[in-house]
Each structure stands twice: as C-alpha cells, then as structure tokens.
Amino acid sequence: MKLRDVGEFGLIERIRRAVGRARQPGVVLGIGDDAAVLRTRPGEDLVVSTDAVVEGVHFRWDWETPHSIGRRALAAALSDLAAMGARPLGVVAALTVDPSLDVARCDALTRGLVDGSRRWGAPLVGGNLTRARDTALTLTVLGAVPRGRALRRDAARAGDRIFVTGTLGGAALGVARAARGARVRFAPEPRLAAGRALARLRGVGACIDVSDGLVADLGHVLRASRVGARIDADRIPVPRGFEAACTRAGLDARVLAATGGEDYELVFTLRPGVPAGPALARRLGTPTTEIGVVTATRGLRGLGPAGPRRGFTHF
Amino acid sequence: MKLRDVGEFGLIERIRRAVGRARQPGVVLGIGDDAAVLRTRPGEDLVVSTDAVVEGVHFRWDWETPHSIGRRALAAALSDLAAMGARPLGVVAALTVDPSLDVARCDALTRGLVDGSRRWGAPLVGGNLTRARDTALTLTVLGAVPRGRALRRDAARAGDRIFVTGTLGGAALGVARAARGARVRFAPEPRLAAGRALARLRGVGACIDVSDGLVADLGHVLRASRVGARIDADRIPVPRGFEAACTRAGLDARVLAATGGEDYELVFTLRPGVPAGPALARRLGTPTTEIGVVTATRGLRGLGPAGPRRGFTHF
Q1: Are A300 and A188 contained in the same domain?
Q2: What domain count does chain A have?
Q3: In the prediction, which pLDDT does A312 show?
Q4: Tell me, what's the ipTM?
Q5: Do B50 and A134 touch (CB under 8 A)?
Q6: Distance between B281 CA and the closest CA of chain A, angstroms
Q7: Are residues A131 and A194 in the same domain?
Q8: Rounded-to-integer distance, Cα A258 and Cα A26, Å
Q9: Which of A1, A50, A103 to mutate to test the interface with B (most CBs of B within 10 A)?
C-alpha cells in the first residue's frame, strides 16, 4: 500500500496513534492544534536546534532499516541539545514524502522516531506533512538548560585540556562497511546525561558534539574561541577491535578516528586544575579521555595525515 | 553563479550576514552554535510550530519573486503563533537546496525571510542547510503566551458566535490569476497582534488561522470541540472588488471565499454576551466580522455549494 492510498490525514492519524497519549509534565498541549505548548521550569533558558535528513544524502533505504533512519535522525538532533547541556522538552517533525512511498516503510520510520523520542524523553509534540520528490525528515528539538549555563563553542581558553566522551570512528567504519554491502546497525546515543552534567560542572570550557568528525567539529570550537589545539592522535579513543577492523577494510584507523562523523560523542574542554579521571567519568556517566590541550597559537596540530581533512560538506 | 560555487559554508556566511547582529532581548545566543538559546518571561508558556514550503507544491519560481517566497513562508509559519495568541520569540530555518540553484535567487529568498523576521519581530536564530533535489524551506517558529492562555481549537461551545478577521478569498483569487499568467503580489500578514489580544480577552472560545480555507479550518475547530456550526455565507468578508474580479475570472466568489486558503486570517469564537462590533475591532487592531454561530448539532451548515468541499490536501 502506498501513502497516496491512505492520504495526508490518514498518515497524520497513523503518526498520532504511534505517538499515543504520552503525558509528560513539560507538555501543556501536544499534537493536534496550530502549535504545541511546552513549559520550562523557573530559571531555565530555552534551547532550540533544527536538523534535516534527506534521502540519498543522509540515509539510503538499502543501507539500514526505516526504523533506524527515524531513530538516528532524532539522535542526531538531540545530540545538539546534549552539546548545549540541555534536557529535552520535546520535538516537532516536518516530514516530506513521495506519495508513492510504501506505507509500511513510512510507518517504520515513524516508529523509529517515536521509539527514540520515548527512550530519550523528548515527546513528539507536533509536525508538518508535505509531499515532495525527496523523502526528508526535519526535526526541531527543544530543550531547557539552567539559566546562563548553556555550553558554548566559543568558551575554550588556552591551557584548557580537551576531552572526548566514549569512542570515535565507529560510525564512519560502519558507513564504509555498509557501502561495501555489509548489514550494519547504526544506533547512536545522544550524550544527554553527560551534557547536562557538564552544564553543571564548575570549570567547564567549550563543548560541541562530533557530528562531522573531530577535526571539523573541534575546528568550530577553536575558530569560535579564537584559539588553537595540540591533539595526541594516539589518545583518540576508538571502539574495541577498531584498528583490526580498519586494517581488514583497507582503511587508515587514525584518519577515520580523527575525521569520521556521526558518533555523536561530546568534545569539551576543562580549565586547568579541574579534576578529571574516574571522578569525571562517574559524574558524566560515561568514559572520558583527555586527548590534548588548547593553545594560544591558532591551528590544530598533532594529527598528522588526518589534520588537513575537513568533515562532510553538502556541496 | 551557482550555490555549488560558493559552497555550504559560503552560503551559511551569506545568510548570517543577511541576518546581521540584531540584538533582541529574548535571544541569549543566536546563529553559530549547536543550538540557539532563547528566554521567555516569567509566567509564560512556550509555543512551537513547524511548517514547510516545497518547490512545485507551495511555490513556483515563475509565479512570484524569491523574496516573496521567503517572506510568505514565514508569514504562514507565524500565523500558527497568531492562532495560539503567542508573541514571536524566534525562528529556525532548515533549507534544502539543489547545488545548481542560482545564488542570487537563494539570496533573495533569504532576504525575504529576514525582512519578514524583522517586520514581525521573530529573529532568525538558527538553521540547517542540506542539499536535495527539491528546494524546500522548513521554518520552526517559537513563541510565548501568558501561562495557560494559549488559544486552542477544542474550546468552542454551542452558542458561541463565530468571527473572522480581515477578508477571505483574496489569496485564492491571486493564485487563480497567477495560474493564468498574471503578475500577482502575495504579501500576507500574520495576525499576531489580534491573536495576542484574543489570548487576553475574557470570553474567547476557540481560535484557528485560515491556511487551508474557512471550511477546512473551521472544520478542524468543530471536530476538536465536538460541535457544529451554522454559517451565513453572505456575511463572509471579502476584499473590495472581489465579486467583480471573480466574475471576470469565471470563478464563484462564494466558493472561493469559503474554501480559498492562505489568507492567514483568524477564525475565532466568543461566548454569548461578549461585546463585539467596533470595540472588538479596536481591541484586536483589525476589522472583525460575525459570520455564524456554533451549534450543538454536528456538521457545518449554511454554505451551500461551498460546504462539502475540503481544503488543500497533500496526496
């Protein structure tokens, strides 16, 4: 069955049923009116970010399940809230679809979005539906952060130490393997708890999420903060068995770890003297690795062949 | 010059320059970080709505200027805030473009968006840029409304009188004339001031904006409120010279006024006894016309041939 057989309002009804009547304290009015109504707590700022995934650019139907596409799109969007230190308030979804799209495929994509929305506490409170040639999902995520505590890109200072949560390179390796026909499971987790903990930490500097690769995203921090950095490439944390898997695939593990995108880890800086190690990992609820230092001298050094590359650009 | 010649970051820089450094009290952090940070006033709820316009579906490059496309997209999005009684806080824009799109065309579309953003007090605080086949602009608007005062679709009651601001049918007549090759200027104004005044009015019932046509949009109100309505078709307010222009174009003026979309007027109900007339028009800052009454009997009566029609649907 195709979408044109269920019609626009039929599809809206299917999405509304998938979302259900999940009551959440911050949601005053959800799906079904001209707009949704949300409520922050006293003393909070509102955080908002918008992010689109487009068929053929960000996803391919033959590389992953529709469920994974929907879930991953939300993970990517919520990662921006994590990078600001915000807790999710809700999400609105603008979907464009070709009327000849299979209903089952669209349902599965919606379920991926709704499952992620429940998992990460970001209720789907509204949306928009339009026909188009490209199937695309534009998610706008709303969050809240203690007033004045939003984590920023422009707050790194010379002498700060640079940390990364979790591991890098895994998603890029998965994409490379998918491109060669392997069935790969993409299930990124936005680092929401770590981001919220960082926003409350004394002595935190800048923060960004790794969506386009460490080199590209740390580059944004350095430019915004008007500083440079020296990275120890050997200390960039990678998943277990990563080097061997890269070797088998004929890929350079160091380059992949430094430039691969879509791991959605957080890169952040701490002022000198702020305790790191296991105490920091406990506080953030995730392993963290110190990978370098912020320098007054501009530019990014220490990455060798991975250094000059940039992340993904759209044209 | 094509977009691929300026590149993704070149285009982002052009948009950022068009936006400028417009400081606004509610904006804590604008374009340039992982997310924007906004601030509501104490005692306010947050209102959010997302809306997309797609090339070939909602606009055509040969029917209007790119500036008009950008401005009109924002008017449509802000109209949803007006319908909730909210004041704008900001807007985020997700743009998908074909890299072969002319830079001048894209710049003009952006200027239309930014001009509207200044005109209506909704600063552009963030966005997303992606390549795609379809040029599409997805706008998510954020607003604030006094706590618990958001205007809703489901609040009409039998006995309420039904009002509309301004006039209906003008946009649909314009589209019909554009389809026949006429140069038409589309410059809708979201009824933000009227919406805010309504949210503060004692005895207001339901409210919606007319984006898909009176029959379709009033229909949403009636279904959500589980009531019906009797409309006096002769009282639906139309622009000066509308009947004559419709006759010349071979169109039925009554049908167009009752079913034409994109006028972005507000349709709202008032409890019995709430003063209307010139006092109401003064309070809302716009002419208002009483066009019918809410009934306990479900369904929409009094529209004759325009009645059974529905508004625009996407597939």
Answers
A1: yes
A2: 2
A3: 47
A4: 0.92
A5: no
A6: 23
A7: no
A8: 38
A9: A50
From the first residue on, what is the mean pLDDT of each consecutive set of 10 residues in chain A (315 residues)? 89 89 82 93 96 93 91 97 98 95 94 96 95 94 97 98 97 89 86 98 97 95 97 96 94 94 97 93 96 96 67 49
Q: Range of B272's domain?
A: 153-306
Task: State whether residue B147 sits within 8 Å of chain A by CB.
Answer: yes
Please tell me whether residues B298 and B223 are part of one structural domain.
Answer: yes
Measured distance CA(B268)–CA(B259) in Å, rounded? 17
Predicted confidence band of residue B305 (pLDDT cuts 50, 70, 90):
low
Angle value at C-alpha B146, between B142 and B148, nearest 5 degrees: 100
**B180 touching A, CB under 8 A?**
no
Q: Which of B146, B172, B195 lies at the terminal end of a domain, its last residue? A: B146
**Could you tell me if residue B103 is inside a domain?**
yes
User: Is pLDDT above 60 for B315?
Assistant: no
Tell me: do A82 and A206 sit in the same domain: no
Is B128 in contact with B31 (CB distance < 8 Å)? no
Interface of B with A in 192-251 (CB under 8 A): 208-209, 224
Query: Which residues numbered 8-67 in A keep a CB inside 8 Å of some CB on B?
Result: 8-9, 28-29, 32-40, 42, 45-52, 54, 57-58
Contacts of B152 in chain A (CB under 8 A): 29, 33
Is B35 a residue whose pLDDT tops 90?
Answer: yes
Shared domain for B137 and B208, answered yes or no, is no
DSSP string, B59-117: B-TTTS-HHHHHHHHHHHHHHHHHHHTPEEEEEEEEEEE-TTSBHHHHHHHHHHHHHHH
Q: What is the pTM for the complete model shown? A: 0.93
Assess whether A201 and A237 both reside in one domain. Answer: yes
Chain A residues in contact with B90 by the CB 8 A cut-off are 48
Residues A199 and A109 in one domain: no
Contact B176, B253 (CB under 8 A): no
Q: Is position B95 within any domain?
A: yes
Please tell me if residue A76 touches chain B, with a CB cutoff of 8 Å: no
pLDDT value, residue B310: 46
Q: Are residues B173 and B111 in the same domain?
A: no
- Percent of chain B residues topping a pLDDT of 70: 96
